[in-house]
Amino acid sequence: MALKLETAQEILLATASVMPAECLPLEQCWQRVLAETVVADTDFPPFDRSPLDGYAVIADEVKHARPDAPVRLHQIENVAAGSVARETVRPGTACRIMTGAPIPPGATGVIRQEDTAVEGDIITIMAGAGAAQNICRRGEEITAGEVVLTAGTVINAGAMGMLAALGKAEPLVYVRPRVALMATGSEIIPVNEPLTPGKIRNSNSYMLSAQVQEAGGQVQLLGEARDDVDAIIELLERAADCDVCITTGGASVGDYDLIGEVFKKMGVKVLFERVSIKPGMPVLAGVKENKLFIGLSGNPAAASISFEQLVRPVLLKMSGRTGWWRPRVRATLAAPFGKSTGAKRFVWARCWQNEAGLLAEPLRLQGNGMLKSAIAANALVVIPENSPPLPAGTEVEVFLLVNA
Prior knowledge:
Blueprint: H1 5-15, E1 21-23, E2 38-39, E3 54-57, H2 59-62, E4 71-79, E5 93-97, E6 109-112, E7 116-119, E8 122-125, E9 147-149, H3 157-165, E10 172-174, E11 178-184, E12 188-189, E13 200-201, H4 204-214, E14 218-225, H5 229-236, E15 244-248, H6 259-266, E16 269-274, E17 277-278, E18 282-288, E19 291-296, H7 300-318, E20 328-333, E21 344-354, E22 357-362, H8 372-376, E23 379-383, E24 395-400
Parallel strand pairs: 4-5, 11-14, 11-15, 12-13, 15-19, 17-21, 20-22
Antiparallel strand pairs: 1-10, 2-9, 3-5, 3-6, 4-8, 7-8, 16-18, 18-19, 20-24, 21-22, 21-23, 23-24
Helix pairs in contact: 1-7, 4-7, 5-6
Keywords: Magnesium, Metal-binding, Molybdenum, Molybdenum cofactor biosynthesis, Transferase
Pathway: Cofactor biosynthesis; molybdopterin biosynthesis
Organism: Sporolituus thermophilus DSM 23256
């Protein structure tokens, strides 16, 4: 009896544990998951500063300046970024200032360079109305004691910059789960070998390696094993330090479907054997000593969809993320889907927005063993269980193949 997808997801997520944490140099932390709460120990900006090159002035003194009624001031100093003014700006004076430099004492505004004319040390102000707004105030973005980043945050470019600004040279991040990948089947050969009659190259391991890395894991490729229980076990034993072992092939019912025998001989406790989805119904999941073992179909499309729905959320949880699911939206079928279905079906699709709303077009090649449609897909259309063929114009649920 095949489990409901949601039940299988709950079982796997309940089995998975969040990885421990490690400190890493900041330059290695892009796309890692933060394992600590980061609190600002200072205001940011840490001082009032200039957002532009120009002249620090007393704003009230120049607010009425215009080309036909300019205000002339005496330049007293030049303050570059990284230096501090020695003089105080007083009525009748201005201080040359560069972007990022601290506002000098006495100044209450900045005039941009383009609104001035300079002759010697006399500065002619020809537009002064916005001077008071041209200051980045201390603490206007972040105040000391403010929580800036929380555990579970994926460190993107913005977070990298903020961690640097706050002096976090070695943030605490979650260790990435280690995932071993192996393809089984006497017909499978390595990717660098020439094809001979009856053989196919190992595409599954490379497809899944990309999916593992996108989900925050690190990959160990175990290679290929022929249809032999002991040969499969020998390869799996090379992954002793991995947290998850994934095999493709040998998971469905047949004379050469051996993963069940492998699990039994290795002492892996079986969690479930089939999941009610298409493609990808044959999924054998088990656990031994806190290590997950998952056997997926050898058909590429089936393996990819099963991974997407069952393994990806587990890896996201293990890697410390707080969101485990793809964004879900409602869209209108831009083309018919001509198959009826028993189990819930996931269909590779192209999704886009136009003036009428969000549209989704199922891609043409959807067979269990077909990969080509996955190249162009940016979404998965969900076909409900026991659904008849769906005409164009039907509203459907869509999983967007982007991170939440």
